[in-house]
Amino acid sequence: MRNNILYGLGAAVILLLVRDINLIAGFPQEASQGAIFKIIFFHVPMAITAMLCSSVALIASVMFLITRNFKYDAVAVAVTEVGLAFLLGNLVTGSIWARIIWGVWWAWDVRLTSALVCWLLYAGYLMLRRAIEEPTQRAVFAACFSIFAFIDVPIVYLSIRLFRTQHPGPVFFTSNGSFPPDWTAAIFGPLGTLMALMMLATVLTVIRLSQEDSQRELDSLRRMAHAM
Amino acid sequence: MGFFRQALVITVKDLRAEIRTKEAINASFAFALVILVLFSFAFDPLEDTTRDISGGLLWIVFAFAGTLILNRSFARELPNDCLDALIAAPISGAALFLGKSVANYLLLLAVELVSLPVFGIFYNVRWTTQFWQLMLVLVLGTWGLTLIGTFCSALTVNIRLREVMLPMLTYPALVPVLMGSMQLTMTLMAGKPIGPDMVPWLKLLAGFDLVFTAASLVLVEIVLVG
To answer: Among partner residues A140, A141, A148, which is closest to B215 by beta-carbon distance?
Structure first.
């Protein structure tokens, strides 16, 4: 049953992405930037999905520390891995965009740098997990570090904002933006890329969760075998 | 015994052990010297541009040298199961952590204070012109550095690859502290006082220290005691 829902959701993601890419390809080119501008339809939703993932990781980590239920630990690691993948996608698309528009691959401005530091922090989280053998200790330490990392990210952002930035400000839902409504809908609409990517993140997280389940089962079987 | 008295006992114990063996502080200072020398090959120390970025170099030296002290902080309790005894002692994990943090803080400050004149001589920087403001930056920045470092030291004490993991976890988390301290130190090294444009950095440092002191005192109990 669970697998069928997963396959259904996966198929829906593919259909949605095909639809969105078709739609976006049909949009006219942006006046000053040309075709490269259309990278925004994936660049922005990837960042939002990654942020959402780190928030879920925080909640799962706190819940684990309160309840000591390993389900939450599995959710935290699954969602962190998926979030890292999306953040990497965001960094790579941003880098390609920067190369075309600013002429450099990397521009050390506030959002780029904070995204990179955030990525490094959560990569550290995964490395920490890998280095700890004992499951309970691993879950507790990782949860603590995840909370630490989440607190750090806004401060990192704040600190880097004190430098001058060249990243463009938000263009969505603000009066100073000139983003056409049907373009906004292609990202934020119910069938937009944001929805597609969030569904994709959900599918990946659920797959990763079932791997964690199997891993735990294997661990307990191994322990049983040792006991005999 | 009150909370702070317990922390003080741990601080005194750590400092006494360190002063008797001098294992971390000697290594740390020697390492700081080596990095200072190595930097002089990467950047021409006689050029004015090097003097402009020297505040930044200084904090990289402090961060690297600090790792050596922080690495030892909890690791030195591993032989003879001293760490288990400390955790079993009738003090809270937070007091243990605070005591160790303060000990590391004082040790790192000592290394920094000895490194500063050496740095001034090697790089021909007049670092004393804004002495008290520089001390303020040093006090705030080093507390952030030690706090994160001691917390991560507690996280990594029992794991394999401890020496590798500590910098991997600490440096990304330290970005705001290092950035603020570097910006402020660069201004002060140039002989300028902290003006209104630099005050936000000072606030950032103080805010970071406060937020993470609170967060780590709450979380460290879980890390140490479980």
So the answer is: A148
Instruction: Tell me the Cα Rg of chain A.
Output: 20
Residues 6+ apart with CB under 8 A from A188: A172, A194
Residues A56-89: pLDDT tens digits? 999 999 999 999 988 899 999 999 999 999 999 9
| Pair of tokens at residue B177 | 């502290």
The yes-or-no verdict on residue A121 having pLDDT over 60 is yes
By C-alpha distance, the chain B residue nearest A133 is: B159
What residues in B contact A144, CB-CB < 8 Å? 155, 219, 222-223
- Report CA Rg, chain B: 18
For chain B, the average pLDDT equals 88
Identify the residue with better confidence: B86 or B50. Answer: B86
Determine which helix (DSSP H) or strand (DSSP E) holds B88, and give its type and residue range.
helix B82-88
- Cβ within 8 Å of A, B 156-175: 156, 158-161, 165, 168-169, 172-173, 175
Q: Residue A202 above 80 pLDDT?
A: yes
Find, in chain B, the residue whose alpha carbon is nearest to that of A160. Answer: B176
pLDDT class for A172, splitting at 50, 70, 90? Answer: low
Sketch the domain layout of chain B as residue ranges.
3-225
Three-class secondary structure of residue A95 per DSSP: helix
**Cα–Cα nearest to A55, from A122, A135, A116, A10:** A122
Q: pLDDT at position A171, please?
A: 62
Cα distance between residue B194 and residue B202, in whole Å:
9
Answer whether B169 sits within 8 Å of A144, measured CB to CB. Answer: no
pLDDT per residue as tens digits for the range A17-30: 888 888 888 787 77
Query: Considering only alpha carbons, which residue of chain A is nearest residue B224?
Result: A141
Give the span between the Cα atoms of B9 and B6, in whole angstroms.
5
CA B77 to chain centre: 19
Which structure tokens are listed for A105? 């691959």
Neighbours of A133 (CB within 10 A): 10
